Amino acid sequence: MRLPGRPSVTSSPLHGEIVAAFGRHFLVKTADDSTLICVLRGKKRGGACGDRVEIYQTGPEQGVIERILPRSALLYRSDLSREKLIAANATQVIIVVAPVPSFSEELINRCLVAAESQRLSVLIVLNKTDLVDPSRVALNGLSLYRELDYTLLHISARNDVKPLLPYLEDHLSVLVGQSGMGKSTIINALVPDAERATADISATLDAGRHTTTHARLYHLDRNARIIDSPGIQQFGLQHLSIEDIAWGFREFRPYIGKCKFNNCRHSGEPGCALVDAMRENKVSVRRIDLYHKLITSLSTNRIPSFSSRTKIQ
Ligand SMILES: Nc1nc2c(ncn2[C@@H]2O[C@H](COP(=O)(O)OP(=O)(O)OP(=O)(O)O)[C@@H](O)[C@H]2O)c(=O)[nH]1
Ligand SMILES: [Mg+2]
Ligand SMILES: [Zn+2]
After folding, report:
1. Domain covering 74-228, topology
2. For Zn(2+), which residues are the binding ones (predicted)?
């Protein structure tokens, strides 16, 4: 871990990157490739995988995070009173879905809005295509996202992860999605010594937890890094405003600000540009309905839970 030649206690700060976040403890990889277990000094707000930090080394393999450097982006969700950081400085969100267990379209849309609000690139991956013909059910639902200009990629992480490789170059990607979609299986295929635990969905959810319990960052090569994150059951967007949410629906943007009323919620008000666009089939009813669901849950503070357990096919 520690390289010879550097004292195990430093008086000047070292620069590093958080590669794993376990609640109050973080693994930080320093520029010289040491890995230190660190805590955050004082009562600072939490760090996240991908954060660039300044640390002081306090022991052979220990350190204290003195400062989290400014972030280019922060992907997080806010469930009622809690905020849950997913990844810092990511440039791309990879939403992983699979035909089995079936996935929630609302959760995909919540991930999309969170990614759009941070101006992140998005890739949607339909995994486990070895199990079903991808032209069947799962794809019918997902083709809408291709029409919205999101890239949709089909893979079987179990058989061949190579089609994913070109999309990872020059990105810090973060894999997000429900439990059991195959995020850690993708990591294991990309990083042979990652040894991420993976498990059958019924086994993990019956035990009351997800297989992956903490986020972890991997370097694939000099230009590609990727974060595996724990499966999500809820994706609260309480930190976003109604306007942010509308903006997160990328095809709504040409119509935003064109309604008769400034505070139009696009739910039946006269002169609503978005409803007009829907009538002209320029915006899909499905997405308008999801938008309304999202803004309703903002005002009622009720965030639905998307457990894969009840949906196993
Ligand atoms: N048939 C098939 N099974 C797969 C594929 N990818 C993953 N699986 C299986 O799906 C199950 C769940 O995979 P994981 O990689 O643990 O899923 P995860 O998304 O990391 O789940 P959490 O860590 O709970 O969020 C495991 O039994 C995997 O072997 C695939 O391409 N084809
Ligand atoms: Mg996992
Ligand atoms: Zn409107």
Report:
1. Rossmann fold (3.40.50)
2. 259, 264, 266, 272
Tokens of 102: 């079936």
Residue ranges for the known binding site for GTP are 127-130, 177-185
**Termini Cα distance of the chain:** 45
d(CA 232, CA 180): 10
Atom of ligand 1 nearest to the CA of 127: 31
pLDDT in tens, 90-129: 999 999 999 888 888 999 999 999 999 999 999 999 999 9
pLDDT digits (tens, 9 = 90+) for 146-198: 999 999 999 999 999 999 999 999 999 999 999 999 999 999 999 988 776 66
Secondary structure class of 140 (helix, strand, coil): helix
Ligand 3 centroid–CA 72 distance in Å is: 32
Ligand 1 atom nearest residue 204's Cα: 24
pTM recorded for the entire structure? 0.91
Homologous superfamily of the 14-68 domain (CATH)? Nucleic acid-binding proteins (2.40.50.140)
